[in-house]
From TrEMBL:
Belongs to the nitrile hydratase subunit alpha family. Residues 23-213 form the Nitrile hydratase alpha/Thiocyanate hydrolase gamma domain. One of its GO terms (molecular function) is transition metal ion binding. This is Thiocyanate hydrolase subunit gamma. NCBIfam families: thiocyan_alph. It holds the Pfam family NHase_alpha. Keywords: Hydrolase, Metal-binding. It comes from Mycobacterium parmense.
Amino acid sequence: MSDHDHDHDHARTVTPMVDEITDFEVLEIALRELCIEKGLFTAEEHRVFTEYAEHIGPAPGARLVAKAWLDPEFKKLALTDPMAASKEVGVDWQEPTGFGTPSDFTAFKILEDTPTVHNVIVCALCSCYPRPILGNSPEWYRTPNYRRRLVRWPRQVLSEFGLELSADVEVRVEDSNQKRRFMVMPMRPDGTEGWTEAQLSEIITRDCLIGVALPKPGVTANVTPLVRRAIRPVDA
């Protein structure tokens, strides 16, 4: 590699903030550099989209659910045409930044909880997630521990988030993939009669929209999962 090439790479690629990077991060850097070289997008376009993705959060999803709780007609729209309902809370899946996110908008479905069915989402393969409406996924969602165990032992995993469901409630695990994304619509909790849409939105946390928590009056923070020590820890 020439000095010119070395300087060129340094000008574009941000140095990782950790001592080691994963194979996926190496692939992402290589693919990004190649796309810029081929003219598929510019470094500036990549920066704009990255900043957009880092600043969105679950607020649109919370507003959508709160609106559905209050408006039966909107709830019907959310369950039959969730992409149209998303636009009413400011999320356009096809053009969120002006140049689209082709891997995100092909299919989006909202899963309605009922007294006998509880939904929870996962991406068993990697970390597919409805980012335009929920923001970036939490770190635990991307871990092999969550991905592998939720599909096998969903009740045990949910209990580690503090969510204990009765035996008469069916737990349905929906597996996201590259072209299909999901969001949970939890049931409106008791004690919220007369609340405004803004008040309801505050208790619909990101974890409620994933399905590892239930909305409760007074609870506006996400769950901190229980961390279990490794059976055979590796010495530092």
